[in-house]
Amino acid sequence: MVYILHGDSYDPGMRYEGLARYAFDCGMWGGPNNVAHQSVYNGIFIPHTNAEGVLVLTQILDALIAKTDNCNKIEEYENLKTSITSGMEQRTAIQLIDYILQIIQQD
């Protein structure tokens, strides 16, 4: 099973940070435009997902696609990319982040 730092945290911002750090193989404040930090979450997903949030989620999914050779996961990540929209409610973004974490954990 893959370990994702903060992947089971109560705080969705921390789960987001863990996902970003895993996807981009980086530490805190790493990744494109230094997005791998829980404080970034508030600015791009609250109260709605803004354009930067859409970009970050797309970049995370692209990074995950590059990390795997599992065709089923690649297809799922590609499908998720098409579902990301600006203006998504925060709850939807949280559910999407949690679903991506679940996909990563699948064997």
Would you summarize the structure shown here?
With about 110 residues, the protein is mainly alpha-helical.
Class from helix and strand fractions: mainly alpha
Based on CA atoms alone, the radius of gyration comes out at 12 Å
Total tally of structural domains: 1
Our estimate of the beta-strand percent is under 5%
Give an overview of the whole structure.
The chain has 107 residues and is mainly α. It has one domain. It is built from 5 helices and no strands. Helix 1 packs across helix 5 and helix 2 crosses helix 3. The mean pLDDT is 94.
For this entry, give a set of tags.
mainly alpha; 0% strand; 107 residues; 5 helices
Topology:
Elements: H1 12-24, H2 38-45, H3 51-67, H4 71-83, H5 90-105
